[in-house]
């Protein structure tokens, strides 16, 4: 029998230790990722249930400010508290991916329509030209009909999807590529806009830096609404008003020009890859903050989205904090919150919790801002514009959709301790050391709603996410 030397014993011992450590590390990693994924799912669920219910609250046709005018199909829209009267019309548009199918008899229907605001100085010739362009959007009485728009859009889009899928299948056969899941169509209604969209899933789900291809149609009725669609190149309806073009460094000048000139209508001609490295950093362009919010949503949403996308992919935590701070500070002026807040939070959690070392710090920062927005400053434009939730009357509170009310009424045990933990309790100061997070499952309650009891988000904070990736 061969005698085992001390050196061999040592090697066996070391191998066993290495194997055990690898097993522990793998289990630890899986547990950490599972808990982080659970936290993300809960936050996504709360945001989705709180914000997605907006779609069922009211449609743009129920808005009391809108009235049909005559038989020319135009709408006259007088904003609340504003002397501005805006006239709107529908303009067909074609997504670049579908442009090759818009010629001849192969496919003649427009892919969708955009609701534009017209200048009040319109000539009869311009009105005649416009009416000729969107005559198929009118109902039997000659007025714009949402059902007709939806019907025509759906027909056109479905045909475009069929053609697009057919062409991509041929290309994929040649290049041996896979399209992944089939496209799907979605619709959203709210008091400020009516959106119909088509999303093509990301062909490469493992590529975290790319996004699905999205075709979106927005029938906007906001004061400064222009029908701007990210990534789309639309034809300019009135030749004497050329479009502004934003390509990175031009963004700041664009925002300032729009505010200074007070354009009655505009549209942005965006390159197919809007996420350019030249897009100015917000912390270096402080004057952009005031300007962008004066635009009331349309370009601001896209610019913030693009900047948030870049911040998250580059792990720029100060940039993300600045975006969230802007939302908290200026949210009452626009309906920007529901779109950008969701994107920023999702990107922040998915990128930083998975890849950054200071996971606990990032999580606490996100939750602090989310708590601040939802509890003290968040004011849903679709329910009670320009009213702080702390000042809501019972009548205003009744405007909230049932789903949001049911979420808000959920209560967790001992919320005071949790609020102290994240730095918002009565006696607690700012949470200076996130690494002191209790190593347990923690429920964070968003309190300080006067008429809506509490909005609760349960977040699992694991030992690893508290200490970072050790």
Note down, in words, how this protein is organized.
With 470 residues, this protein is of the alpha+beta class. It has a domain at 1-172 and 180-202 and 211-225 and 267-295: Beta Polymerase, domain 2, CATH 3.30.460.90. Helices cover 42% and strands 13% of the residues. It is built from 13 helices and 11 strands. The protein has helices at residues 6-51, 124-133, 146-175, 250-261, 286-294, 298-313, 317-330, 337-355, 359-377, 394-397, 402-408, 415-421, 463-467; strands at residues 66-68, 75-78, 85-93, 112-118, 184-189, 193-200, 213-220, 244-245, 268-269, 441-446, 455-460. The strands form 4 sheets. A 4-stranded antiparallel β-sheet has the order 1-2-3-4. The protein has a 3-stranded antiparallel β-sheet with strand order 5-6-7, with no helix packed on it. A hairpin with a 6-residue loop joins strand 2 and strand 3. The longest helix is centred in the first third of the chain and has 46 residues, at 6-51. The model is unreliable at 38-122, 137-147, 174-303, 328-339, 370-393 and 396-470 (pLDDT under 50).
């Amino acid at each position: 029998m061969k005698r085992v030397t001390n050196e061999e014993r040592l090697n066996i011992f070391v191998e066993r230790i290495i194997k055990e450590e690898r097993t522990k590390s793998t289990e630890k990693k899986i547990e950490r990722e599972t808990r982080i994924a659970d936290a993300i799912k809960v936050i996504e669920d709360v945001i989705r249930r709180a914000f997605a219910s907006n779609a069922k609250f009211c449609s743009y046709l129920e808005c009391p400010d809108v009235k049909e005018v005559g038989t020319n199909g135009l709408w006259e829209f007088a904003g609340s508290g504003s002397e501005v009267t805006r006239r709107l019309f529908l303009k067909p548009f074609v997504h670049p991916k579908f442009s090759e199918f818009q010629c001849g008899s192969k496919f003649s229907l427009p892919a969708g329509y955009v609701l534009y605001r017209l200048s009040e100085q319109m000539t009869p010739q311009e009105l005649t030209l416009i009416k000729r362009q969107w005559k198929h959007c009118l109902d039997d009485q000659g007025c714009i009909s949402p059902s007709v728009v939806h019907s025509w859009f759906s027909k056109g889009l479905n045909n475009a999807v069929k053609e697009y899928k057919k062409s991509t299948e041929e290309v994929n056969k040649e290049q041996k590529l896979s399209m992944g899941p089939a496209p799907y169509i979605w619709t959203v209604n709210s008091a400020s806009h009516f959106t119909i969209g088509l999303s093509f899933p990301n062909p490469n789900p493992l590529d975290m830096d790319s996004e699905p291809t999205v075709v979106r149609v927005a029938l906007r009725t906001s004061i400064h609404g222009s029908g701007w669609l990210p990534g789309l190149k639309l034809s300019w309806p009135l030749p004497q008003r050329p479009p502004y073009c934003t390509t990175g460094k031009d963004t700041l000048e664009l925002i300032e020009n729009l505010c200074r000139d007070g354009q009655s209508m505009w549209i942005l001609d965006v390159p197919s890859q809007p996420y350019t490295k030249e897009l100015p950093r917000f912390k270096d362009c402080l004057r952009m903050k005031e300007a962008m919010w004066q635009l009331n949503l349309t370009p601001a949403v896209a610019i913030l989205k693009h900047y948030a996308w870049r911040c998250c992919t580059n792990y720029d935590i100060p940039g993300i904090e600045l975006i969230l701070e802007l939302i908290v500070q200026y949210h009452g002026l626009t309906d920007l919150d529901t779109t950008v807040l969701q994107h920023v939070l999702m990107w922040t959690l998915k990128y930083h919790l998975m890849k950054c070392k200071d996971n606990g710090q990032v999580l606490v920062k996100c939750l602090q801002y989310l708590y601040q927005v939802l509890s003290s400053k968040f004011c849903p434009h679709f329910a009670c514009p320009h009213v702080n939730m702390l000042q809501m009357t019972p009548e205003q509170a009744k405007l909230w959709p049932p789903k949001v009310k049911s979420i808000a009424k959920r209560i967790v045990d001992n919320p005071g301790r949790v609020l102290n933990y994240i730095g918002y309790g009565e006696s607690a100061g700012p949470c200076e050391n996130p690494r002191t997070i209790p190593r347990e499952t923690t429920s964070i309650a968003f309190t300080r709603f006067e008429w809506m009891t509490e909005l609760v988000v349960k977040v699992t904070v694991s030992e690893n996410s508290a200490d970072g990736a050790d």
